[in-house]
Amino acid sequence: MKLLILNGPNLNLLGLREPEIYGKADYPALCRYLEESAMTAGVSIHIVQSNHEGVLVDEIQQALGRFDGIIINPAAYTHTSVAILDALKAVSLPAVEVHLSNPLQREAFRHVSYAGMACLRSFVGQGFSGYAQAITYLKDYLSE
Ligand code: CA2
Question: Which candidate in 22, 77, 114, 131 is catalytic?
Answer without folding.
Answer: 22
